Predict the structure.
Amino acid sequence: MGGLYLLDYGAGNVRSLVNAVNKLGYEIEWIKEPGDILKAEKLIFPGVGAFGSAMQLLVEKNYAEPLKQFIASGKQFMGICVGLQALFEGSEENPNISGLGIIPGTVKLFNKDDKVVPHMGWNEANCIKEIKYKNELGQDIHCGIKPGSVYYFVHSYAVPYNQKIKEWILSTTQYGDEIFISSIQKDNVFGTQFHPEKSGYAGLRILKSFLESSGNNNLVVVDDKKIIMKNPTILPKDRFRKRIIACLDVRTNDHGDLVVTKGDQYDVRERTTDNTNGQVRNLGKPVDLARRYFDEGADEITFLNITSFRNCPLVDLPMLEILKRTSETVFVPLTIGGGIRDIIDPDGKFHSALEVAGEYFRSGADKVSIGSDAVYAVENYLANNKILSGRTAIETIAHAYGSQAVVISVDPKRIYVNSPDDEPNHHVIKTSYPGPNGEPWCWYQCTVKGGREGRDIDVHQLVTSCEVMGAGEILLNCMDKDGTNSGYDLELINDVKKAVRIPVIASSGAGKEDHFAEVFAKTNVEAALAAGIFHRREIPIKHVKNYLKERYILIRDEDP
Ligand code: 1PR
């Protein structure tokens, strides 16, 4: 099939979409100028970032009018995420900016009272009508959305279910007690609020059906006889899945090769018989391991460059190549951490954290994770009477790419005290696991440079400030628990969950299946991350998921 085009305006990770299309055996060309839009036979618009900036860029680049003409011409269009939202009249996200106005209605912010926002993770899409495409031979192709399958969502705004536009609605999804439109389809226009290119095999099936359907005018048909419109009812609980994340700490070993390693409380060197530091532990090759975890059912993959404090020219950042290669075969979200900060090349050239993040997004990352730089930013924010500067990495990246793209990686360690009065400037909690001298209280000190340096700031101050700055998720490590296989630090996790309204990933300490069940049963964390047990093949991800399923914890099943 020729004439398949991608409408990109440089706002984020579209590499994964291109890779997904290529994997399905199709080539896709990029729209470079307005005239290309009308040349296209099929067009995919993977809107990324904020509604307002997407629309502004469409207008600035003179794409908006040709896009409307393209859609009116009856040629096939697919919008993804903001690419779907742009079809509506407007969005609460940027009330002064108009959408394309093809579908009546406004995109609204989720209600944050009963749930964390963004809605980030795997959820169901329930088709409320049955749609079939025709292929070139006139055969039916189902739209690819299958009952029971789950898809990857990442957004804070959505279009609420609305009977008045029922002819447009293909599926709905429930988040908390809200039902929103998760996909639309009418004539030649198709769109998903979720990301098919990040939804594993279930998502690839949807892209495939769109690509295989005939590209001629109006050949996409709605089979009217099959339309079963029923109003979706609000269930007592949504079907949002708990996520299992595999984390790969990456660094160069003593031979200069990039390897996945794993520390015990952040010490990544083998212990030798004479108790001196040995070689950096080598647990495999990053790209191969990521692929293995995708096949085993990981819901996300996180790469952390743990020697990021070393200076490196922007173009030689070691993780760029790893991301590019991983995103060719791994179709779940990828996060990259380590070194997301302003950098100066060895030749003296300055690059902002925003530029660094941009390189990673273009190489296939969906989120960046900020560690040390977040601690410094919060220190300045608190010293400056909580006035936002607008210039921190968190703020600039969240502004350009959306909050959902900014994760804060926290590396805390416990400091025990006898009484809260001993530490009046920090958030102190009573612990059931007293310190070495029986101290019944502790606070969690934030560290920088991979745990090498403790700072005078506690986790509570860090996460609440980062949320204000625009971070979209917290990756909550714990130095005391890392690599110990003794279970997650539930006290820390519960304390952080109470403090923020953004998703939290529990990390550090998983040693058996029951630790995952425990963290989901005893905290309301959105995701659990592990490293060592997966790398050492002690417990396959599949076993963890089966164990959770047997205990009625909702997880995503593999969908081959
Ligand atoms: O400060 O923005 O450059 O980011 C550096 C990043 O590298 C941070 O996210 C920091 O957590 C990470 N990092 C730095 N040094 C180490 C180290 O181990 N020496 N890794 C390190 C942190 C912790 C987790 C680990 C979980 C689960 N690793 O990512 O994967 O604790 O482990 P487990 O399941 O085996 O217990 P910046």
